[in-house]
Amino acid sequence: MKQIVASRTVDIPEGITMEVKARKVRVKGPRGSLTRDFKHLAVDLYLIEEEGVKKLKVDAHFSKRKQLAAIRTTCSHVQNLIKGVTVGFEYKMRLVYAHFPINANIESEGTKIEIRNFLGEKRVRIVHMLPGAVLC
Questions:
Q1: What's the burial of 43, exposed, middle or buried (CB within 10 Å: 0-12/13-18/19+)?
Q2: Average pLDDT of the chain?
Q3: Considering the entire predicted model, what is its pTM?
Q4: Phi/psi at 84 (nearest 5 deg)?
Q5: In sequence order, which residues have a C-beta less than 8 Å from that of residue 3 and are 6 or more positions away?
Q6: What's the maximum distance between 2 C-alpha atoms anywhere in the chain?
Q7: Contact indicator for 18, 53 with CB cutoff of 8 Å
Q8: d(Cα 20, Cα 70) in Å, to the nearest integer?
Q9: Which residues pair with 26 in a beta bridge?
Q10: How is the chain classified by DSSP, letter by letter?
Q11: Residue 100's Cα: distance from chain center in Å?
Q12: Short-list 9, 20, 7, CA closest to 56
């Protein structure tokens, strides 16, 4: 069954600026700027202001179950963007092995990592880290 219109809103906190253009959302905050493209989803994105509070409104018209789920997904992605520019994001990765012991060395001031004996291989694998990633 189709629902005529469904909508959700996301509150935009103080100190955050958000731009929406052609389903492309750009969020700027104290820790930088993040961009996310929602062109693959059949949703409408609007910036509104209710009672002095800025909000992002996500609408879907004549949607079935899958498209209705995309509304909540879009809101969650935008909330994660806001969290990323205010608090930041940290992911701790661990190296594990089952049989062949892996040796990993951090090289050139934390910009690349050398992995030796991966699955018993003789060659050394070198992984260059993306900008902003820190190796400890």
A1: buried
A2: 92
A3: 0.76
A4: -65, -35
A5: 60, 62, 63, 64, 68
A6: 64
A7: no
A8: 17
A9: 19, 35
A10: --EEEEEEEEE--TT-EEEEETTEEEEEETTEEEEEE-TTS--EEEEEEETTEEEEEEEEEEE-HHHHHHHHHHHHHHHHHHHHHHT----------SSSPPEEEEEGGGTEEEEESGGG-SSPEEEEPPTT----
A11: 34
A12: 9
Q: How many CA atoms lie within 13 A of 96 on its CB side?
A: 4
- Measure the CA angle with vertex 28, ends 69 and 20; round to 5°: 50
Tally of residues, the chain? 136
Tokens 């205010």 sit on residue: 86
> pLDDT tens digits for 60-119?
999 999 989 999 999 999 999 999 999 988 888 888 888 899 999 998 888 899 999 999
Task: Provide the token pair at 39.
Answer: 């062109």
Q: Provide the pLDDT confidence category of residue 134 given band limits of 50, 70 and 90.
A: confident
Question: What pairing do the DSSP bridges indicate for beta strands 53-63 and 44-50?
Answer: antiparallel
